[in-house]
Each structure stands twice: as structure tokens, then as C-alpha cells.
Write a structure and sequence with these properties.
The chain is mainly α and 156 residues long. It has helices at residues 2-51, 58-64, 69-97, 104-108, 111-117, 119-124, 126-132, 135-155.
Length: 156
Amino acid sequence: MVTLLTGLVSGLLATILSLVFTKKINSDLHKRYEEKSFFETRMKMNELQLNEPYLRSDTILKEFLTDNEKDNNIILRKYDLFCIMQFNYFKSLCDYYGYNKNAEFTEKYNLKANISCYKEWWKTNHPLNTERYGTKFIEFIDGYLNSDRKKINSAV
């Protein structure tokens, strides 16, 4: 009877430890997968920017616009889609890591600089962005853009 009880307890402990370790390993694998996915997405967007330089920022876009309206429409559509991709990417990062501006991920992914590159697009499309993204994300992005304006105004 004691041996049976000891065997059951040992089996139960082994099962519990196995579940705990499996959960930890799965959690670590999921985190690595997500981070790899973020990195790969960033690399694809960087590649797009290398191939289409006007995608790099609002300022560079203006230099690429020509007198030919047809060319401008194509460039502007590509730019619009790229900006949507950028902000979808930023939203995925924020959802995964949380919305803390002081968190490590904001520096790791250079969010402030990347968000600032597309501030004109963000302001122009603010009503649509309100529909696309939740309030929390909009406040996060606006907070970055407003902090840039405050620094500029205090320097003047």
C-alpha cells in the first residue's frame, strides 16, 4: 500500500514537473518566434525602403513627386500603403510588448525615430487612423509626436 502511494505521488510529481517545464519551453519558443517575426517584418520593410527611397519619410516623399500626375498617384498610393504597413507593425509591437514608452522595445525597434518619419501622413490620416486603430495606440503615437513638438517649441 505504501509503495503504491509512493508510486502515485512520484508519478503525479513527475507529471506536474513535466507540465511546468513544457509550459515554460513553449512560452520561450513563442517569444522567440514573435521576436523573429518582428525582425523579419522590419527587414522586409527596410528592403522596400531601399528599393523605393521615397518610402523613407514624409520629407523624402516630397522630393520624389513630379509634375506628372499619373506618376504622383502611383507614388502616393505606394507611400500610403507603406505607411499603413508601418503603423500596423508599430501596433503589433505595442500590443505584444505593452504601451510603455520607457520600455526596452521602444529603443530596440527605434520607435520614436520611425514614428517621426511618418508624422505628416499620420496627421493627414488621423480620422481614418481613428477607425483603423484603437484609442490606446492612437494616444501612444500622438504622445510621441506631441513630445517632438514640445521639444521644438521649447527650443524656439
